[in-house]
Amino acid sequence: MGGRLANLLLSGKYLILVITEIELLFYLNITSDKEVQIRDFLTKIIVVGIEVNIKELAIALRKQYKPRLPDAIIVATAKCFNATFLTNDVKLANLTKINTQSIQIV
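Given the sequence above, the corresponding structure tokens read:
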């Protein structure tokens, strides 16, 4: 919430995990205007829950790569949906098990 994307995202379908939705709405200093903007954004994308296949893959990723649990679940979601994982986390962007794309926050 402290920055903006350096480049606009290409037009397309986007999804986030329910964990990311919670993180977006959890910021302590979020203004009501910013919350309205976030909720509007969330109506334009797909928000997915944690299904069994995501859970099992997250466990395997956590054992192999040792990421934080939320990161393992988010990466597993991208893999299960055969989606490109957009991240500004260099360590996660270098995972070879999934298609990743590094994004820059300014």
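DSSP finds five helices and four strands in the chain. Try to locate this feature in the token string yourself.
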